[in-house]
Amino acid sequence: MNLWRKLACALLAAILCASAAANWLAPAGYAKQYREATDAPPSRTHWLGTDEIGRDRFARVLYGTRISLLLAPAAALLSTLMAALIGGLAGYLGGIWARVAMAVTDLFLSLPWLFLLITARALMPLNVSPLFSVTVTFLLLGLLGWTTAARVLCATAGSLRSADFVRQARAAGVSGQRLFWIHVMPNLKPVLYAQFWISIPVFILSEANLGILGLGVAEPLPSWGSLLKELEGLVSGGDEPWKFVPLILLVLVVMSFQFLLSGQEQVTA
Amino acid sequence: MLRSKIAGHALALVATIVLGGLLSATLVRLAPGFDADERQLDPHLNAESVQAFRAARQQDHNIWRFYFHYMNRAAHGDLGTSLALGQPVRTLLRDRATLTLRLLTVGLALAWVAALSLALTAAWLRISTYDALTTMVSGTFLCVPAAVLALLSVLWNVPGSLVIALIVFPHIYRYTRNLLAKSYSQPHIITARAKGLGEARILFWHVVPGVAPQLLAVAGVSVSMAVGAAIPVEALCGLAGVGQLAWQAALARDLPLLVNITILVTVVTLLANCGADVIGHMVRGQES
Amino acid sequence: MSSTMRRTCRRAIAVGLLCLGSLSGRAVAQGGGELRFCLRMEPKTFDPLRVEDEASAAIRYLTGGVLVRVNRQTQELEPELAQSWKVSKDGRTITFSLRSGISFSDGRPFSAQDVAYTMQQLMDPALHSATGDAFRSGTGNVETKVISPTQISITFPAPVAGLDRLFDQVAILSERSPGKEKAVLGPFMLADYKPGASVLLQRNPNYWKSDEQGRKLPYLAAIRLDIQANRDVEMLRFKRGELDVINSLDSEYFDKLEMTSPQLVHDAGPSLDSEQLWFNEVAKAPIPAYKKNWFRSANFRRAISEAINREDLSRVVYHGHAQPAVGPFSPTNQFWFNNKLKPQTYSPDAALKALKNDGFRLENGALKDKDGNEVVFSIITNAGSNTRERMAVLIQEDLQKIGIHVNVVTLDFPSLIERMTQTFDYEAIILGLTNVDLDPNGEMNVWLSSSENHQWNPQQKVPETAWEAEIDRLMRAQASSTDLKQRKEAFDRVQEIVIEEEPFIFLINKNALSAVSTTVHGAAPVILSPQTFWNAERLTVSAK
User: How far apart are alpha carbons C26 and C109 in whole angstroms?
Assistant: First the structure.
């Protein structure tokens, strides 16, 4: 395992362990409001300061990690698998299958899914646990986020249909199913890894934006997305570099995933 | 063969556009808040006025009737009137389309230049540190919320097209980088390198053409990504484009405007992706 | 030099000085600069009779000529196009004596005929406008009688309380001009409109008013209103000097700006606006019956009110730029506010005690009713309002202290309106009331139980409670009376009932905050809308 991948593993493990140990590292919890110390800078009591209603930011980052780091990759995996099935299979089969699948994909890309999400919120009872609400959110994101990669996978699988090794395998009598899963799918890995890697931060950020529809994480549960929304206020006037910690963490996590995934895709000198 | 492919695409395009409009209208109609009018909350309005506003919304209740009338009028060039802004949809779209088109064109061009430059150099050099650096740069832009990028663009007086480029380029970079990296592991590339062919020749004559259909597919979907990015960018930067209009229409449940915008987006998406498919088919045809 | 020559010279010098003075005055007047600020949304209409949103109201204020104007600073009614007016004893007829020699911006003369035309358009039942509906006190037609070109009387079918003040919102249209929206009597006129981008108003060359020195008003050459919904962008542009004024500033931005440039920010004190929480008391609401029982109990509502720390809401959410609300009206509304009302005290212990009297009990930190149902309910509010979301989270923690579990849900506004007014599928809501009127008659449709806007339980065929029946009686009594003292007594009693029964749990009255650049001269921010440009005709903007 090269150095980058080792560092990536170590970093992800450290972040996951820290979030698992949130009860000990931040015993006050993510919801307690220190109303006498709102929007406070870092101090011995509050290592990353407090938010606008006095909640400890360090605690919220730790607890938010649990939500975002577990659910976002799960949703990314879902969207990647759906893209692989729909796009990959369509490209492999070709002909009318590919045309119909890509027409459906293009429709999916164009429709205002905002209204489906609003409807989903309306169907959920108002009194649901924040965890249920955020799980549903990430599930919906996973179910809707496959379209970009599906198109690229369709093109990739389509190219592979006429590849020499596929022709040879077909000539040798390999079944279509085996051909697809054992020979074609592994060659779709570059696109699948790209899709997975891109989806993680995109879904984390989307979850925060879906708060406007009543989806996403419900108060007082934190998520990285909701913490990242604080950056908007910094632009118009704020000298608070500690608020960048969730962004730095997210970048590090995203990079770590990339190094873990890169594996044989990395071409080293 | 090519003609039949184009004809098939054209037919699929028309059917998809019509279906897209209907599905969009259905989604909007079924979503909660369709009948809601903010004016109802004004305590100065009496009961008759509130009932009148509700009744005005009721006429779009039957989605089939609405869509049938819409298609009928659209065939004569009348795209309806915006409920929220009280202006003809055609005028609204015409006035704003140029700005959005310019934003998207320049944004996409910048995104592709940035993404291709980084991906090609990373593929060419194959230095792990450089790879890590480019990954970090693209990863950072992927993690910064679009709203923050848009606000920074206002702060630094940077054009909105650059924001769109920064939102879209990490996606393009990652796909391109992975496709190029995979292509390098192909047997014919390994053979070419073993035989001492120059790196530049290998990259531009053998690697890139090998992934051209996939890159074209990425180009097609990058148009959809840019269209999606245009909405928050225009809304936040105060750019009077179609994206800003789409956001206002969504908030107001403006059915005529939303249906038209969806159809416009569907047309753009289909044209981009179909174009990519057709060119990809030509490239594959040339190779074989 | 002979004495005649000396007199002539002195006269010439005096005339010369006068000319110079008026020239410089005109130069000031004509070189008054361009004022720039933002509208938070696209104006929905330029027809002054159909104004329903804030952006259109701002444009109407700047372009519309009105018969009388509420001075936003003194809150007194002042003559404008009307020199004087008289309201009949029965409150049904108002007679205006108009100024003469006034023209619209297109040059057409203004007369009583234009007032008659405007009122006929306004009172058209098909118009459905808030401005028109404010005059509708009874069924029947409104009669206008043009007595002379400068005198008109308008008679309503029933008495209209506060009749004269309502004309502050009625911009007079020209009967004869072909472009109604372009022929205005106000200080500015519409010059350009770029949808989604900006509205440009220019000085009305035919504006009738002059200042005390005889200089023509307005001083400003133009006003540019940029359409910008995002407050961060508005703030950025103000700091960069691209905007001169922020009309309604959020408290967090106020503090940020105050740290670097305290001279730019203004806190005019508590505004007329209030933020409140209310429970769903609609009998047919699709919520469990046991929850309806809680919400329909005044004791429950009072306990919740007592358990909410309003001081913290003001301090934490509004950074001290708000006051705990005492009742439906802000104390700033000096005449109508019932100053006998006492602020709600914060006492979780008293709240718990009151709930125990109703059969509630604490079990393992969770409050349960007498049937063993855990007290859990949701509070919804509109997404995008940081202050309401934060208030909801603070209230969530306050109620947690007495064992009540609250779920906070933010929804997009149309979904929220649908739940609130049509499906009644909600439990509690936090929303605000924006008051533009001082007169309680403007809130008639909030307090009448049969009304659409009787938010907690609208459209009651008959009042479901004795106290709502009493409020109906009192509001109708004050609406049909012209005796201010009687009206005040009636509305004082309404305020007392509202505090006793707490159908609305009033939370805070936020302060009127604004920001004004140092390049703007003559600004005096007030609490009544429009806070910063209420005296736009006398503002000037100097070059940076």
Answer: 24
Q: What are phi and psi of C446, to 5 degrees?
A: -90, -40
Helices A245-262, A189-209: axis angle to 10 degrees equals: 160
Whether C79 and C68 have beta carbons less than 8 Å apart is answered as yes
- Tokens 């903010």, residue? B38
Q: Which residues of C touch B244 (CB under 8 A)?
A: 196
Contact status, residue C513 vs residue C265, Cβ threshold 8 Å? yes
Q: Band the pLDDT of C8: cuts 50, 70, 90.
A: low
Q: Look at chain C and count its residues.
A: 544
- Beta-carbon pairs below 8 A across chains A and B: 182
C270's enclosing H/E stretch is strand C265-270
Mean pLDDT estimate for chain A: 87
Contact of B238 with chain A, judged by CB distance below 8 Å, is answered with no
Return the residue of B nearest to C235 by Cα.
B155
Structure tokens given for A147: 């379209």
Chain C residues inside the 8 Å CB shell of A212 = 383-384, 410, 412
What is the rounded average pLDDT of the residues C78-96? 95
At residue C96, φ and ψ (nearest 5 deg) are -110, 140
What's the angle, vertex CA C535, arms to CA C530 and CA C536, rounded to 5? 90
Question: Are C428 and C437 a contacting pair, CB within 8 Å?
Answer: no
Q: Do A255 and B126 touch (CB under 8 A)?
A: no
- Touching A (3+ Cβ pairs <8 A), the chains are B, C
Q: What distance in Å separates the CA atoms of residue C466 and residue C472, rounded to the nearest whole number?
A: 10
Long-range contacts of C206-214 (CB under 8 A, 24+ apart): C206/C103, C206/C104, C206/C105, C206/C107, C207/C105, C207/C537, C208/C65, C208/C81, C208/C99, C208/C101, C208/C102, C208/C103, C209/C537, C211/C538, C213/C25, C214/C22, C214/C25
Characterize B39-50 residue by residue with b for buried, 16 or more Cβ atoms within 10 angstroms of its Cβ, and e for exposed. bbbbbbbbbebb
* CA–CA separation, B152 and B138 (whole Å): 17
Q: Which two tokens stand for residue C148?
A: 């002379």
Paired residues of C210 in beta bridges: C216
Which chains are adjacent to chain B, needing at least 3 Cβ pairs under 8 Å? Answer: A, C
- Considering only the top CATH level, what class is A56-245? mainly alpha
From the list B17, B10, B174, the residue with the least C-alpha distance to A149 is B174
Q: Do B251 and C413 touch (CB under 8 A)?
A: yes
Q: Could you give the count of Cα atoms lying within 13 Å of B203 in the half-sphere of its Cβ?
A: 17
pTM of the model: 0.90
Q: Does A94 touch chain C (CB under 8 A)?
A: no
Helix/strand/coil percentages in chain C, nearest 5: 35, 20, 45
User: Alpha-carbon dihedral of residues C73, C76, C81, C84, nearest 10 degrees?
Assistant: -160
Residue of A nearest to C379 (CA): A126
Is residue A15 within 8 Å of residue A65, measured between CB atoms? yes
Rounded distance between C-alpha atoms, residue B287 and residue B282, angstroms: 9
Rounded distance between C-alpha atoms, residue C411 and residue B76, angstroms: 39
CB contact under 8 A, B46 and C445: yes
- Give the CB-side neighbour count of residue B71, counting CA atoms within 13 A: 13
Beta strands C198-203 and C376-382 are unpaired
| Chain C residue with the nearest C-alpha to that of B93 | C195
User: If you write DSSP's letter for every residue of A223-260 in order, what string do you get?
Assistant: -HHHHHTTHHHHHTT---GGGGHHHHHHHHHHHHHHHH
Which of A156-160, C305-309, C436-440 is least confident?
C436-440
ipTM for the predicted complex comes to 0.89
Are the C-beta atoms of residues C224 and C35 closer than 8 Å to each other?
Answer: yes
Task: Report whether B227 contacts A204 (CB < 8 A).
Answer: no
* C407 with A128: Cβ contact below 8 A: yes
DSSP letter assigned to residue C405: E
Domain layout of chain A by residue ranges: 56-245
Higher pLDDT, B8 or B172: B172
